[in-house]
Fold this protein.
Amino acid sequence: MSKDRLLSVERLVKIYGDKPAVRGISFSVDEGEIFALIGPNGAGKTTTMRIIATLLKPTSGRVLVDGHDVVSEPLEVRRRISYLPEEAGAYPNMTGREYLEFVAQVYFEDPGEARAAVERGIEYAALGDAIDERVKTYSKGMKRRLQLARALMTRPRLLLLDEPTSGVDVVHAVHLRRVVKRVAREEGSTVLLSSHNMLEVEYLSDRVAFIHEGRILVEGTPGEVKKRYGAGNLEEAFVRALEEQGLSLGGSG
Ligand SMILES: Nc1ncnc2c1ncn2[C@@H]1O[C@H](COP(=O)(O)OP(=O)(O)OP(=O)(O)O)[C@@H](O)[C@H]1O
Ligand SMILES: [Mg+2]
């Protein structure tokens, strides 16, 4: 038993119909750690996150969040997590501020705590005057910033961020990454994220796992993974990890 294990995924399998998406993956994340899942399209990242978020039932295997089983104790799990899906929608007719207020009221009984959460959300989203415009007038990246701010402002024990900054411009992505790191370091939130942006992964993550076709190929700190493959960066390491397995992406296969 690890001392402060917040998330534990054990031999997780998910088969959609007769199509295996996740083929027995295991990993664990300690309290306060930032852990990234990296892998090509269709590798099983979103499936894994949806199971942890209690939105999808595993075919077999076990997932514990702070000691609570996602299948038998979903309410205990939901109380501890905040999930940013790959594609999240807000209420189009609300303003950004109204949306954050709505979410905060659902999360916090205490009005003072709810107000403080909204203040944090407004700072994280960094939307300026647009916070008082209707969400339907936002660009894709602005909606994403509002959704990520929503996920972060409640200070969950476990943050599940599926491609958090996809569609967000460079300047705002840098701001959001700083916020994610700050929330993990200062609030002690544990973070599981997926990303196709290797700069983002290197900046944020304490540990990473490469997933391919539902299996973890390698896991470690970014430094360990790069060293293992003699690679200068994670992108290079990922390609080498695939080659080592005799796997390739597309082509003649
Ligand atoms: N609802 C579903 N029904 C059937 N198959 C699905 C479903 N959702 C995902 N899959 C399949 O499961 C596999 C894993 O998909 P998943 O969305 O978990 O990948 P991912 O790693 O998140 O990819 P991406 O980087 O494109 O987001 C894929 O082969 C996909 O086609
Ligand atoms: Mg995905």
Observations:
- The radius of gyration is 18 Å.
